[in-house]
Amino acid sequence: MATVLLPALLRAADEYEPIRLAMVEDQLGARGVRNAAVLRAMRTVPRHLFVPPASRSKAYADHPLYIGQGQTISQPYIVAFMSEMLDPRPHHRVLEIGTGSGYQAAVLALLAKEVYTIEIVPDIARRSGELLKQLGCANVFPREGDGYQGWPEKAPFDRIILTAAPPEVPKALTDQLKPGGILVAPVGVQRQELVVIEKRLDGTLKKRSSIPVRFVPMVPATR
Ligand code: SAH
Question: Which amino acids bring their CB within 6 angstroms of ligand 1?
């Protein structure tokens, strides 16, 4: 597992640990999340630091949270389920579209070698970038930009995860996936479902639908 050093100060001050461990057992383990590395990451990342101070007491509840500026932090189970579907390995380079609070990126930082994450709203990108840095997530590379374009300079990626929903999976993103790679995305407008795409070694795509989900829409760039 990749190492991320959470500053001792944060660890010592983490009065939420018992609630977090209960969340992992009651919400994730009980619903069938089995990937040991994913469970470990979900036990480690201080989710309460990724929500506004006024919402901290609800950070570990079994639902998504609205955290301002049209943004939500996904339900813990969905973060764990998508991480399990993505199946990141310690040597992988992962691309995330929709940094939001930075929570999913921090979870992935414990599962993969490098996490490249793109957020379209400048203010959100700046804040989550600062928090990830403060938490010592040195293997997360955040930037402001339009996820529809992906990050061609850093491509190809072993894994790609979208945490905002496009009407269909953008071709630029499947093009930036390595052969043998996996992409996980919520897809759809009115009704969304989680889609898992595998790129076969010959470059063809194998697509399957998973559970119904509800994510904020992936907005097109305006400039
Ligand atoms: N992964 C986040 C949750 C994402 S919320 C977390 O763990 O908290 C979805 C985010 O996607 C929002 O912050 C939204 O601004 C962003 N987003 C929407 N459209 C986008 C686009 N085209 N490119 C990049 N980010 C986008």
Answer: 71-74, 97-98, 100-101, 103-104, 118-121, 124, 146-148, 163-164, 216, 218-219
